[in-house]
Amino acid sequence: MEYNINLGVWKSVFAVPSEIVDKHLKLAGAAQLKVLLWFLRHSGENISIADISKALSMQEADVRDCMQYWVQTDVIAINDDVITPAKLSDNVYGTEISTADVYEDKTAENINISSNVVVSADKAENTAAEKKHMLSRPEKPDMKYLAQRISSDESIAFMMQSLDEIFGRITNNNDKATLLMIHEYYGLPVEVILMLLQYASSINKCSWRYIEKTAMSWADEEITTLEAAEKKIQQLTNGRNAASVVQRIIGVDKHSPTEKETMLANTWINIWKFSPEMIRAAYELCVDTKGKYLPNYTNKILESWHNSGITSTDKINKSKPVRSKSNKKGNADSYEATYDISEYESTSVLDGEW
């Protein structure tokens, strides 16, 4: 009698280092794990970035980024195009050293984040807060430091997981490094950062340029609590809603308002409390005077009315409409401006166009 053990899909297996499961399963993204598993499955073969890219339907740049993650976290090493297991290092996880090596100010413009060191969460946050006004532009932390922070701090790990959920896609390590930089360098708490990300997603502005710029602004305004963040978001929302109202009033195509447009619209509607009729009147006066719509000039007109206590179109000083007949038969009658433009032009508040 012969016996045969049916291993099924287990008939062909390959080894996966225990450290991948123990330390990286919750740290690495899906893309990083896919690349490593494919690489391990084809160990001993001559493979290239292009091979992995084709097999996994990924961009070559993304494959390189994934491989770099495993290099920087000391899982693999690349020497002369030969990939080998990296040597074990005692200082990769859990060793506490001075934060001076992580946020080291060598040139006052260049911050070097060491790839060999790990810092406790408390010390990293304290040092980052102390130096955030000393340094002009921080560099993002490297992958090893990112992995350590995610591993050692549950709130950081939660923030990184939430990032993918909020953006609705798998973010890469560069994205996560930027988020960690915002937390440690600008000093914004995790819960405030998550509110910022949710707001950015709600207005379709998930670019890291916008998010980092907004984070810098919030840090300067010391928005470090949920209550302060909620108030700020409400202000931003009111401004965007006001900008949409102004777009309808003056008849321009609906578009995502600029920061300047949002600020002006918020002032006109939410602070000065001007009615749509007053805003339209200021718009028409601007066009009559300058030949086109200029937001800053329109703002000067409204500011003049606000300072003078003019709250309705009935109080605006108007000149009588002057009808002028065209010499050419059949042309419609035309009217001059219904506002005394010269009076507004003569006031100092309207000098220039900003």
Describe, in plain words, how this protein is organized in 3D:
By secondary structure, the chain is mainly α. The protein folds into 3 domains: 11-85, Orthogonal Bundle (Arc Repressor Mutant, subunit A); 99-224, no CATH class; 272-350, no CATH class. It is built from 15 helices and 6 strands. The protein has helices at 18-24, 30-41, 49-56, 60-72, 121-131, 143-152, 154-167, 173-185, 190-202, 208-220, 226-250, 259-271, 276-290, 295-308, 341-346, and strands spanning 76-79, 82-85, 104-105, 111-112, 323-324, 334-335. The strands form 3 sheets. The protein has a two-stranded antiparallel sheet with strand order 1-2. The protein has a two-stranded antiparallel sheet with strand order 3-4. The chain has a two-stranded antiparallel sheet with strand order 5-6. α2 (30-41) packs across α4 (60-72), α6 (143-152) crosses α7 and α13 (276-290) packs across α14. It is elongated. The protein starts with 17 loop residues before the first helix and ends in an 8-residue tail after the last helix.
